[in-house]
């Protein structure tokens, strides 16, 4: 069936629907705003007419090719109208339409509306009907969106759904690596990486992946210690595994390298604080590094509770926007931070 | 003078209430209540159609988000919600809740995420009736939305996001799972929400220009001053935000035409204007009424006093 969508219309050449033969004998149904509408909208004539015709076909439940055309027009005027999208789905089913054409339609709508919820829900509906055959196309489609906006939240949600429901995990970790090579600060890509290493049936799960991922995160930290994403990722690798977190020597080592460089310190410091609060006993080199960062020169850092308090104090200077927070943390250090 | 009050100066409150009430979807009979449809409020006439008495196909486009808005507007204009037929609304709302605790916003199908769980919780709270949802299941879904970095995503596995954090914490607060003393007891939730890591994540959302970003390594945007500010406020942690920095950022987003835009020098829109003002209220700006953070209304409107 030929695609009947014609939403690429030139608005300057709008032909009223009342003049179009395909809509002959359709009685438009005006919107009933009631006697005293509040915040009444000044609809443009072509919008009003399109919606009047939509109301008519919708109310009489006509599931026909001209209804499909009308939904294309209505969507181009207001792609957020979920009632129109739903009716379109009913029409597509009744006509047993070629859903590959529909994928093309959604791609056209996505051009100006990549952050529209209804569009993405519709795309998911189409992909679900097409099944696993559609999987690669969905990865490709979201990939195109990411070329324009590598952090489009809807596209990432859709991609996660595709992986989970249609199972095409093979290249996903590599894809994350590629995106992070393009922009190591892309938090969406870091999140996707975590999703892949924990959920992919091909990789063995978090425990199996943890070791290499710790190295990966630490390398990113080394290049850009001011980048919050790899720090959070690193911590996340050991969620609910405090023993492992406390015993992975690479972590305090990475923190120390940052401290010695004396720049972009806040995440290294807060990571050390987190470790110390869980009972980690830092070596002398780390203690010395903390001492040399202390702004109040009251001698060496002694007990661990002094150490934790010192770190909080340094953070008050290194991360002054959150000075109140670091003071508060200093006042509620847990027992584990004591000698 | 509070901007939230200007409505009463210009528009007759009864007219607003009457107009809002005209969007309510009503079941034809009690037997309709088991048909899986949600009988709430429509958002506009564009999804509300004149019903024909003998029509087989009754178009019910009522939606959780418009229902939340309708009830909130009614509270703002001082309408007594006990006059509403809430029984049908709440009973039918249950069929929107999914097996994983999340909510679909409309029975014909749509995306499901934390936003609609928040709407459901706010609806039950405003009607003071929790028959509309299974709170335990909802809490479970919220906890599944907490990410490895301490923030919350809109769905399990999604990237942590300021708006999702608000939906999560405000919902937990509305449902009664978060007390006033949340900060002093970081495991105040008898379950697995890690409040400490949420706190740390949320506070790092305030960036060098004083504004607040929605996700790490993204630009600061007016509305997150509310989403994150209100999340912190609900937890008793807004004292940790750099208020001076935030205030000066917000002022750069104020338009010469009035209102607020998303970024400095952007044209204003209603959404960012509302959230900009709401953020100023949280910051204690003189002349603005205090907010009930978890409902997104002034305290006066929320309590009806």
Automatic annotation (TrEMBL), chain A:
Q: Please give the GO cellular component terms listed in this UniProt entry.
A: CAAX-protein geranylgeranyltransferase complex; protein farnesyltransferase complex
Superkingdom, according to UniProt? Eukaryota
Swiss-Prot/TrEMBL keywords: Magnesium, Prenyltransferase, Repeat, Transferase
GO terms for MF: CAAX-protein geranylgeranyltransferase activity; protein farnesyltransferase activity
Requisite cofactors? Mg(2+)
EC numbers? 2.5.1.58, 2.5.1.59
Reactions catalysed, as given in the entry = L-cysteinyl-[protein] + (2E,6E)-farnesyl diphosphate = S-(2E,6E)-farnesyl-L-cysteinyl-[protein] + diphosphate; geranylgeranyl diphosphate + L-cysteinyl-[protein] = S-geranylgeranyl-L-cysteinyl-[protein] + diphosphate
Which stretch is the leader sequence? none
Q: What does this protein do?
A: Essential subunit of both the farnesyltransferase and the geranylgeranyltransferase complex. Contributes to the transfer of a farnesyl or geranylgeranyl moiety from farnesyl or geranylgeranyl diphosphate to a cysteine at the fourth position from the C-terminus of several proteins having the C-terminal sequence Cys-aliphatic-aliphatic-X.
Q: Which family does it belong to?
A: Belongs to the protein prenyltransferase subunit alpha family.
Q: What is this protein called?
A: Protein farnesyltransferase/geranylgeranyltransferase type-1 subunit alpha
Automatic annotation (TrEMBL), chain B:
Query: What Pfam families does the record tag this protein with?
Result: Prenyltrans (PF00432)
Which stretch is the leader sequence? none
Query: InterPro entries, per this entry?
Result: PGGT1B-like, Prenyltrans, Terpenoid_cyclase/PrenylTrfase
Q: Which UniProt keywords apply?
A: Metal-binding, Prenyltransferase, Repeat, Transferase, Zinc
Report a single Gene Ontology molecular function: transferase activity
* Chain ranges of the Prenyltransferase alpha-alpha toroid domain: 12-291
The organism's place on the tree of life at top rank: Eukaryota
Question: Which cofactor names does the annotation list?
Answer: Zn(2+)
Q: What Gene3D superfamilies does UniProt report for this protein, alphabetically?
A: 1.50.10.20
Alphabetized SUPFAM superfamilies for the sequence = Terpenoid cyclases/Protein prenyltransferases
Record's family? Answer: Belongs to the protein prenyltransferase subunit beta family.
Xref: PANTHER family = GERANYLGERANYL TRANSFERASE TYPE BETA SUBUNIT, GERANYLGERANYL TRANSFERASE TYPE-1 SUBUNIT BETA
What protein is this chain from? Geranylgeranyl transferase type-1 subunit beta isoform X2
